[in-house]
Amino acid sequence: MPERHVDGPLQPGDRAPNIVLDAITREGKIALDDFRGQSPILVGLFRGLHCPFCRRHIAAQAQLDAALRDKGVESLTVVNTPIERARLYFRYHPLPNLLAASDPERVSHRAFGLPNLEFTEKETEWPRKVGMDVVMGMQVDIPGELPGPMNRLAAAEQLNNKDGYEMMEADQRMAATGQGQLFGQFLLDREGVVRWAFTEVPEGGQRMFGMPSPGELMSARLRRWRARHRRAVGVVLSTAAGTSRCARGGAAVFAPTPARDERLIRAHLIRAHNDRHSGKAPRKQDDRDRAGPILEPPRDLQIRNAHQER
Predict the structure, then answer these.
(1) What are the CA-CA distances from residue 94 to residues 29, 62, 164, 181 (Å)?
(2) Which of the listed residues 86, 213, 233, 256 has the most CB atoms within 10 Å of its CB?
(3) Measured between alpha carbons, how far is 309 from 152 in angstroms, rounded to an integer?
(4) Looking at 152-274, which runs of residues are DSSP E strands?
(5) How many CA atoms lie within 13 A of 84 on its CB side?
């Protein structure tokens, strides 16, 4: 069983623990280790389906599934709901291609460092305790679904009525022990290292019931992809600089500038793309299907490469 991350939620650079949970939308188990060495994965750790805000967050993440997969990223939704209750819900509210797992004991939430708030009358010690006076002051606004900003309890009741969601015994049991569970989303790379995270923990509760926009999620994936290629280019440039020193008696001829770096990075990405398209680099069949046309490097680099070849 994964240990609790005691210093708060996992942050970019932290290695995520392996978690093994019952699959909801298929048979068997789901383990994070299944994805390591295979693909990045966006992990959403939500409250139970009894929470109307999390039901909307789950649907929003599911809507991004196709776009994420097109970028080579898998997606996993984890809910604090018993397996049979969760399967019943998704049977009548299917989300295409959703990969979901059940975690009624909130093992994954603890392993990723997400707190379970204790509700008190007036004592607040965020993110361990929160007073009901603070909770009642939290305004939730969902345009198109709520008539205007409302306190959290009134908004939840209205949304449950709107959805026709019937609280069953399993839901009531989960709500009794996990109503204060904070949720989070974590983008892990192929090695299981966190590269981006969004949680309700920061800002003293101001993030509660909110979630990142689709654009933020997709740009997080793009930033991670660019950073990976920048590191690869850095190795190439360092090697080139070392070679130049040897050739010129120790005087490095490589003087990086932001503009030059950007051109070199663009050329590196284009070469990587063209190698995959032309079959010089190994790739999976579905990568071949998605490969685009051969691209041309920037004009200044074409000229420079021609001189180097001579």
Answers:
(1) 20, 10, 16, 25
(2) 86
(3) 67
(4) 184-188, 194-199
(5) 3
Burial of 203 per CB tally in 10 Å (0-12, 13-18, 19+)? exposed
Q: Which of 33, 29, 183, 166 is nearest to 88 (CA)?
A: 166
Strand partners, 102: 22, 79
Q: Label the pairing between strands 118-120 and 129-131.
A: parallel
Question: DSSP strand E in 83-183: where?
Answer: 100-102, 118-120, 129-131, 139-140, 150-151
Identify the pLDDT of residue 254: 33
User: How many CB atoms are located within 10 Å of the residue 98 CB?
Assistant: 19
Q: Quick one: angle between helices 258-278 and 299-309, nearest 10?
A: 80
Residue written as tokens 């939840």? Answer: 156
Percentage of residues in the chain having pLDDT higher than 70: 67
Q: What is the pLDDT of residues 167-209, one digit of tens each?
A: 999 999 999 988 899 999 999 999 999 999 999 998 777 777 7
Q: What's the sign of the alpha-carbon dihedral 4, 7, 9, 13? A: negative
Query: β-strand 129-131 against 41-45: which pairing, if any?
Result: unpaired
117-140 pLDDT, tens digit each: 999 999 999 999 999 998 888 888
Spell out the residues 6+ positions from residue 149 whose beta carbon is closer than 8 angstroms to its own.
Answer: 139, 140, 141
Region 6-18 average pLDDT: 91
What lies within 8 Å, CB to CB, of 146 at 6+ separation is 140, 155, 158, 159
Residue pLDDT, tens place only, 88-122: 999 999 998 899 999 999 999 999 999 999 999 99
